[in-house]
Sequence to fold (108 residues):
Amino acid sequence: MKVMLWCTVATLCCGQLQAGSFEYKAFAEQALVKICSETQQDDRYGLKKTLKENRIKVQTAVDKVVCNGMPLAAFARYEQAHKVAQMLAPYEKRGKGHVDIRDISPAN
Fold:
């Protein structure tokens, strides 16, 4: 009897955990769709507001958000969203690092 009760409780708890993860995925997907639609509409204030509401930094959005298979800044340029593309341009360049390795010993 205890085993049956234990299995019932475990099943109910697992179902609640899975439902919570589904809601989180749906929420994240809605946020990403909203970011892409704000970019497409060339609404930089709406984009900033959406990023702030979802606690996403602009640099993170530029580096990781993909709309229609393109990075966010490239998507803005493709959709001719000039205001948003201009806003994202400094962040796009900031993420790329450059390292030079030079030999400081004299050549013999």
Observations:
- The mean pLDDT is 81.
- The longest helix spans residues 2-40.
